Amino acid sequence: MKGLIGKKIGMTQVFNDEGNLVPVTVIDVSTCQVVGKRTPEKDQYSAVTLGFGEIREKILNKCERGFFKKANVPYRRHVKEFRVTVEEATSFNVGDAVKADLFSKGQLVDVTGVTKGRGFSGVMRRWSFKGSQTKTHGTHEYQRHPGAIGQRKTPGRVYPNKKMPGHYGVEQVTTQNLTVVEVDLEKGLVLVKGAVPGHNNAIVFLRPSIKVAMREQHKAARRG
């Protein structure tokens, strides 16, 4: 599953081929570069290591500086491996720039990122609880509470993973089957329609849709 590292710039809107106005998220992938490769002979699997974003040498530790110097590539702030087939790996060389045209207009992609932090939140915001609908018979100041959380004699405790108030957000999620509306190769931008996780300037990872790939494999297996 080849992919790209990008930075979420923000949102805008574009007109599609039918003349409809489409809201899109702009993702900058202009500084993606191959900084390493994994081969079955040496590492028992095939992958391409991408770097993204510039960083000063003094911020890196000695191991990180040695990694980039050995590969003879510029220092990169973010590094991530993407699994590829042996045939796909042959088309990538260390030092090559990976551009936005890795994806095409209309393609479905999966986007992984860290969601926005929302602090300590109640059950209605965190878990979409409906809340108490009654305001009679002495009930007051209880409309946004979770209700009863435990039992009495058996088992006499609160079950683990009970949905309760707590810290909300700042967790890695993947949104699947988002549509690539436009690819700007000159500026290194990918415009995606859908809920891209993370705040503006957050780092995200784009991959081809895993469900589409599995669907094609199942069709090929049935034909075979």
TrEMBL record:
GO terms for molecular function: rRNA binding; structural constituent of ribosome. Residues 131-152 are annotated as: Disordered. Keywords: Ribonucleoprotein, Ribosomal protein, RNA-binding, rRNA-binding. One of the primary rRNA binding proteins, it binds directly near the 3'-end of the 23S rRNA, where it nucleates assembly of the 50S subunit. It comes from the Bacteria. Part of the 50S ribosomal subunit. Forms a cluster with proteins L14 and L19. PROSITE patterns: RIBOSOMAL_L3. InterPro entries: Ribosomal_uL3, Ribosomal_uL3_bac/org-type, Ribosomal_uL3_CS, Transl_B-barrel_sf. Belongs to the universal ribosomal protein uL3 family. The gene is rplC. One of its GO terms (cellular component) is cytosolic large ribosomal subunit. It comes from Myxococcus llanfairpwllgwyngyllgogerychwyrndrobwllllantysiliogogogochensis. This is Large ribosomal subunit protein uL3. One of its GO terms (biological process) is translation.
